[in-house]
# Entry
Amino acid sequence: MNVKAVTIILSVMFLVYIVDLVRREKLTFKYASGWILLIVLAIFAAIFDGLVFRLSELLGFQLPSNFIFFSVLCGFVFVSLLLTIFLCQQSNRNERMAQKIGILEHEIEQIKKQKTDDR
# Structure
């Protein structure tokens, strides 16, 4: 089996795994989107490997494998950035929710106090 076939098979298996995680609600599509994009790019690069060779030569890489490793590294940095953005958004939501809960608890205490004062 050649490298192209192995790459396509592994990419498709990983894609099926990611889709299954989304289907079983273990992973949201929002978080899976970066991985799916990378998998689709990997399948595209495996099918059109001549394009990868030409692109690596055009960008000045000595070996196409160096270009592939660089591309994979850039892909992981991209996914890490996406996950960091999502994490910051979630942190902001948690902070706002904690503040709202604090306000509601304060209002409940005031209502309880008013009830006891009215008696």
